[in-house]
Amino acid sequence: MKKRKSPVFHSRKRGTALRSFFVTLLGSAAIAVLGAGIWQLLDPVEYQPPLAPLTASALAASKSDQPDQTDPPEEKDTPPPDSSSGSQDPASSGDPPEDGGDDQKSGDPQVAEGEWLASEYFDDALFVGDSITEGIKLYDVMSNVTVLASTGVNLDSLYTKNAITLEDGSKVPILEATKHQKPGKIYLMMGVNSLLSDEDSFRASYSRVVDTLVEQHPNAILYIQSILPVTADYEQRSNAVADNAKIDRYNEVLKELAAEKNVYYLNVAEVFKDADGCLPNSASPKDGIHFGSSWYRTWFDYLRTHGA
Question: Distance between CA atoms of 143 and 307, rounded to whole angstroms?
Fold first, then answer.
């Protein structure tokens, strides 16, 4: 007579099999999630344009009440640029590209709002500037651009400070490094470190930089970007380099210079201003000048609706 198997034994075998099945299932799911996360880091998903057209005022309003606690790179005060550095003979900059908007054709250098540009438009873009431009490398907003920038540089030290490391390991100034690039577009932005000189010296020094870039890359589209505002709290500091009234005056100089040089002017500052014409205190609670990732997104959203 056959011995009857215990039902407890069968129950244990079924329980073990079920546990093995669920462990395998959970392991497969974890591997899939991890793989998707790594792929996102290697190949960030292209973010899509807003459903409704973004105007400058809408962008500013959407950011003015949002705190941004990201620690910005530290800005260094530098001595005023030597006004004699702007005495270089200006190079001919040629006419603006023929694909510019009606404003450019009528003599206004400021780029008007247009259609949303695909990320590929910036594949050949070169960004030149100081610590604010350098911050582009900290945030994965538009990683396909080339950035040549350094903390603390001004219009003079763009030529003298060895800030960029070349492939052979040597270090050269920013405007020496730009010679090795082949950009289709150049975005130039200099901040408060360049406001320590008077307006005439500022114009001469900025003109020299524009002439250098145009001479190096005569077929590239050159955008002069406005100086960005500072917070109201920064304006009250005893060591403040400039207030927003001065920044506005110098931006008018830049717009006039863009018209003179037949290049484009981008009024990026308009989407960074609150109702009082300042960078919101919440955007830069630490130093009143620099800002975090959400404001870099605001910056690039503006550029993507203001292309020549």
Answer: 18
Element holding 224 (H helix, E strand):
strand 221-225
d(CA 211, CA 220): 13
pTM for this model (two decimals): 0.69
Q: Determine the pLDDT at residue 91.
A: 36
Q: Which helix (H) or strand (E) holds 206?
A: helix 199-216
Rounded-to-integer distance, Cα 273 and Cα 90, Å: 33
Residues 55, 278 contacting (CB under 8 angstroms): no
Q: By the 8 A CB rule, do 92 and 262 touch? A: no
Residue type, 299: W
* Intervals of the chain under pLDDT 70: 1-106
Q: Which residues contact 135 (CB under 8 A, 6 or more apart)?
A: 72, 73, 290, 296
Give tens-digit pLDDT for 233-243.
999 999 999 99
Query: What whole-number distance in Å separates Cα of residue 280 and Cα of residue 205?
Result: 30
Distance CA 204, CA 152 (A): 20
Strands (E), 48-192: 125-129, 146-149, 164-165, 171-172, 185-189
For residue 222, what is the enclosing H or E element?
strand 221-225
Q: How far apart, in whole angstroms, are the C-alpha atoms of residue 205 and residue 80?
A: 11
Q: What is the DSSP string of 235-300?
A: HTSTT-S--HHHHHHHHHHHHHHHHHHT-EEE-GGGGT--TTSSB-GGG-TTTSS---HHHHHHHH
As given in the structure block, the two tokens for residue 104 are: 């450019």
pLDDT in the model for residue 15: 55
Q: Give per-residue pLDDT as tens, 172-230.
A: 999 999 999 999 999 999 989 899 999 999 999 999 999 999 999 999 999 999 999 99
pLDDT of residue 140: 76
